[in-house]
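The methods section describes the discrete structure representation at length, but only in general terms. What matters is that the chain and its backbone geometry are given together, residue for residue. For illustration, here is how one protein appears when written out as sequence plus structure tokens:
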Amino acid sequence: MDTATTLLELGAVLFTLGVLGHIANIIGISPIPFFLLGGLAFGRGGLLALHASEEFIELGAEIGVVLLLLTLGLEYTARELLAGLRQHAPAGAVDLTLNAVPGVAAAFLLGWGPLAALVLGGVTAVSSSGIIAKVLADLGRVGNRETPVVLSVLVLEDLAMAVYLPVLTAVLAHQTLVRGGLTLAVALGALVAVFVLALGFGDTVSRIVYDPRTDRNNEVLLLRVLGLALLVAGAAQKLQVSAAVGAFLVGIAVSGPVAEGAREVLSPLRDLFAAVFFVFFGLETSPAELPPVLLAASLLAVAGVGTKILTGWWAARRAGIGPMGRLRAGTALVARGEFSIVIAGLAISAGIEPRLGPFAACYVLIMAIVGPLAARVVEPVTRAVVRRSRPRVVAEPRGRRS
């Protein structure tokens, strides 16, 4: 295809994504479901199939994963992660176990086998940090008592992913036990090394990336952080670990004002390539494949809502928070998004189960819509139910007192 056709297709895709994002903002929900739907419309069996720009979109999707995990790592310092791990480890264990079980069970009930069960367990276990952070900000709950509990659960999920993703990559690549163990050892060794480096030499690492005393241009910060993330992600991929994990570790290693500046300059780029990533996932799924899995995905979504609410309720109760705060914590954790799509994308690339892609897309579509809505309506609905359940006191007519 010629360059003009590629530019026309890319322009049409990006402009459409902008329109869909605007509609999502008006409605007040995450744009992720709209981006997935956009990918379905432009993909196999959609309204308008792309050809010239598909290769570019595929590369853009890989960069989108790197940027999503890089900016997620920039949100945390090594000390915060370790403190959260020590304080809320039981809540994280309950969260991951309770929410992975429905996915594992669904895979076996559908007859997909142990590999698909490992993948689907990860898809259902992990909440969407991006959607949840936006919902908490939009609803003005950042300062609520239950919010640190929600954030701690998300941090522990992110740490679990740093172990889970290299294991999954090794298993999907059908590596031998020795090779798979080596892959996991490399990932865990890198994680420990980054923590030691960040705790002992965080300021030095940050100055190597960007020194405000000599580097006065945000362009330098953008190029260095993005370049370092892509280098480490590429090296991780070569070692059969996971590009996502490599980018996440780079984010953790950078701290202080440099991390804040990096988040600021990377945000527009992350949003652009993250949108491309969700579109690419949709491109790989035919709309005709969704109806056969809709019922099963909906049932799994119902289970996923219930297990996340139970997780938030238990974790908030353990922190001494009242019933309303427990419900807010539980509904805040419901949304699934970027990590679930990353996990499903690895399985699709490995070709383990053709129905897994449409199933995951359908599940994430439902949960990315239900999650923000549940968080928004939980308080008014609960208050209305409580008012209705209170017994009404009926005054006795005068003259009939005994």
In short: The chain has 15 helices and no strands. The mean pLDDT is 80. The two ends are 94 Å apart (CA to CA).
